[in-house]
Each structure stands twice: as structure tokens, then as C-alpha cells.
Amino acid sequence: xxxxxxxxxIAPNFKRRLSGVTATVVRLVPVQARYIAIVAVGPVLPAHVxxxxxxxxxxxxxxxxxxxxxxxxxxxxxxxxxxxxxxxxFKLMFTSAxxxxxxxxxxxxxxxxxxxxxxxxxxxxxxEVPATVIMHGIDTKTFAPSQDxxxxxxxxxxxxxxxxxxxxxxxxxxxxxxxxxHAMIDVLGKHPDATAIVMGRAVGEDEAYLKNxxxxxxxxxxxxxxxxxxxxxxxxxxxxxxxxDLYVAPQRWEGFGLTPIEAMATGCxxxxxxxxxxxxLVQEGVTGTLVDADDIxxxxxxxxxxxxxxxxxxxxxxxxxxxxxxxxxxxxxxxSLIAIYRRLLA
Length: 346
What we know:
Helix content is 40%, strand content 16%. The chain is of the alpha/beta class. The protein folds into two domains: 9-137 and 329-345, Rossmann fold (3-Layer(aba) Sandwich); 149-327, 3-Layer(aba) Sandwich (Rossmann fold), CATH 3.40.50.2000. The strands form two sheets. A six-stranded parallel sheet has the order 2-1-3-4-5-6, sandwiched between helices. A six-stranded parallel sheet has the order 9-8-7-10-11-12, sandwiched between helices. Helix 1 (20-32) packs across helix 13, helix 6 packs across helix 11 (296-308) and helix 9 (259-265) crosses helix 12. It starts with 8 loop residues before the first strand and ends with a helix. The relative contact order is 0.13.
């Protein structure tokens, strides 16, 4: 973005720690910048993301109309302060991924917005104002199938025989990591050639939670067939999905949840719980199957049934990539948001 190019859209990211919102900004802004003058602003952003320093918000020319696209309460407050306290010309926009009744403050802030986006139908149902539903997308060039999964597994140091079942992301109860572990203890007992992988980061009190899960696996005599892997950079994730036969998303609660799309984009079918946007992401009986949240026996049965029916698993695999290409590309998400930006700027 050159100094001569007026900025039309600003996407704030006011959180230092990596989160789903941060990942969304980092994924989307470089794609959107191909079509509209958009920058991110925040304390910690990768160098490849078009951005301006936080201090420059104070000196933005007042005559130029811009869109301020917030995704958190603090960012909505920031937009209101820029507009009404500093006199900057902004149209305010908010994207909500929450699936719960908002606090009074959040409801008031949302009512102050000029446009509201919900990331799923469920999220839209919790809002008290009209919202446009725009679901997240992913980079389908990065998340793509492997031409040789056996060779990929060998390169990654993973078992080259038998099915691989994975569960990735933050390790904590909300994400259902324990549900996955306990369901897979049952599955691995019935499928002696299968291996399960948990990959992610446990923070604070969740470190003890992870330690207990590892002990449960050891007590079941499955330590060699249950792999616990540390978190890897985002740009390395595609291979970890592509190596799998089945991905399991066992969340108890989720705002949206990108992992099923990432998995399906690599041709990996999914067993997921009915939370977040998963019911809109996974096509029942076509790209995978769904079970109720916190139903560990159902999770185990669905996973075991998929592994036992190789023809069905193969059909799911064939359909998964096509489903994501049709409905969940990041280009589609970017263009849908840009259409709202242009309407607000018109």
C-alpha cells in the first residue's frame, strides 16, 4: 500500500495473542488487498499483512470516508472513539461469531454499527439486528490433497500403514480434547492398525489437563499408537490434514470452527459435533457425519463405523475437496465482505 493510495478499509486486531479472530484478519486482509485499499492495524501482525501502525490512526485525514471492520468489543469501541471523539469519517462494521446471548454492552455496541455480519445462521439467530451471513473460507491452494499420502507420512515421521485419525487445535475441555482421547481409546481397541494424533497447545491449567489425558492413554496401553504433537505454524498445517484418513472435531462449544473446512479441503472427511457452524460445514453422509456434543460413545461409534466401511470413507474423501471448493474458498469470503465495504462507501 503506497502513501498515495487512500485507505478505504481498516481491519483492527487489538489482541496480541494468536486467536481465531487474529487468524481471520491475517488470512483475509492480504486477499482483500488485491481488490480494495484495505489495511490491518494492531500491536502484532505478520509482515506480509498490509498494515499501518496504531499511532497513525490519530493522524488519519478526516475528509476521506473509510470502513472500520471490527470483530471484537474493544475494536467496536475503538471505531466509535475514532468517529465520535476524534471526528474521523468512518462507517462501522462488525462481524460476530458468537453463539450465545450477548451482554448488554455488546448489544449496545452492535446497535451502533452501520453493518453487521454473522459467520453462520446460528450466530445470526442470536443477534438483535439484521445481519448478513458470510461464512469463513480458506486458502484452497494451501490446503490441498497430497499426491502421495504414504510418502507424505514417511516424510513427517508418521505411520505409513493403517488409518490415521487426527484432532488439532487448542487443548482444553471446551475444544473436547478429552472427548476425542476417550473416544479414540475405544476406537483403537477395536481397530488395532489405527493411530490417533492430538496436536495443539495447552496453556496454564490446561497443561495438567493434557498430562491427565496422556496418563489415560498410557493406562489403556496405547501410548505407542496415540501421538501427542506440539502446535505447528499455520503454513505447515495442510500436510497434517492431508496425511489423515479421518479428522475429528469434538468441540463442546465453538464460535465457527475452521478445522473441518481445512481438513475437507485436503480431501480428509470429518466426524464433528453439532456445534458452531459445523452443521453447515459438514455435509451429513456426504463429506462426513455429525454427532451430539459431549456424546463420547456416539463419537467413538461414528469414527469406528467410518473406518470399518472403506467404500464409504473413500466416497466421503472424494466429495470433501469439491464441497470446500464450491462453498468455502477464501476468495468467496473476501468478495462477499468487499461488497459490503463498497456499499458502505458508496
